[in-house]
Design brief:
This protein has about 70 residues and is mainly α. The chain contains two helices and four strands, in the order βαββαβ. The chain is elongated, with a radius of gyration of 14 Å. It holds the Pfam family DUF3339.
């Protein structure tokens, strides 16, 4: 049996935290913009830090595990 928890968490967080897809921090005219499909260097940095922090929490602290098969 394989542990698919880390793979699932990483893919879901990557999709949800893609800058400009659902939200963008910081936005071009405001601090948070929703669904604008634009990105900037600062927003890439912020979303990368958010991704790293959340994946560390889910994989190291919460220890998410999913087994299929």
């Amino acid at each position: 049996m394989s542990d698919w928890g880390p793979v699932f968490v990483a893919v879901v967080l990557f999709v949800l935290l893609s800058p400009g897809l659902l939200f963008q921090v910081p936005g071009r005219s405001r601090s948070v913009e929703f669904g604008n499909f634009h990105t900037s260097g600062a927003s890439i940095l912020i979303h990368t830090l958010l991704y790293f922090a959340l994946i560390c929490i889910f994989l190291l602290a919460v220890k998410v595990h999913m087994y299929f098969g």
